[in-house]
Design a protein that fits this description.
Elements: H1 2-23, H2 33-52, H3 59-73, H4 76-88, H5 92-117
Helix pairs in contact: 1-3, 2-3, 2-5, 4-5
Length: 127
């Protein structure tokens, strides 16, 4: 069951990624905004899911949403290729900006996802 969930999640995540890449296109020497947005959104969503449903979710659901859907939606390889492409195109300063923004905003998005996804603590009755 987890393998099927990863397969189906991967199909959906890849389709979503392709759609966003088509909506926000960029050339080799241009800032890869689509990849940045995709990776930040994915970082937030994965952290939100980990905080909110991972403790109670079935293994197949975690595999389908985490590895499948969000694993195919966000990719380190697209991030790395964008960095190399910008550098080779002579836009080294843009590559540095992209690197710093990707890491900083990705970590911030994950932090916010974990924070928003946190389950509320039960209220204790006063004695």
């Amino acid at each position: 069951m987890p393998i099927l969930a990863v397969l189906l999640g991967g199909i959906i995540g890849t389709g979503l990624r392709l759609g966003l890449d088509a909506l926000i296109p960029h050339g080799d020497a241009q800032f890869p905004l689509s990849t940045l947005v995709i990776n930040i959104v994915g970082s937030f969503l994965l952290a939100l899911l980990v905080a909110r449903i991972w403790p109670i979710a079935a293994t197949w659901l975690k595999a389908g949403l985490g590895t499948g859907l969000l694993g195919s939606f966000t990719t380190f390889s697209a991030f790395a290729v964008s960095l190399v492409t910008l550098t080779r195109s002579g836009a080294g300063w843009l590559a540095v900006v992209y690197l710093v923004l990707s890491v900083a905003l990705g970590l911030a998005a994950a932090f916010l996802g974990l924070r928003f996804g946190r389950r509320p603590e039960p209220i204790e009755a006063d004695e």
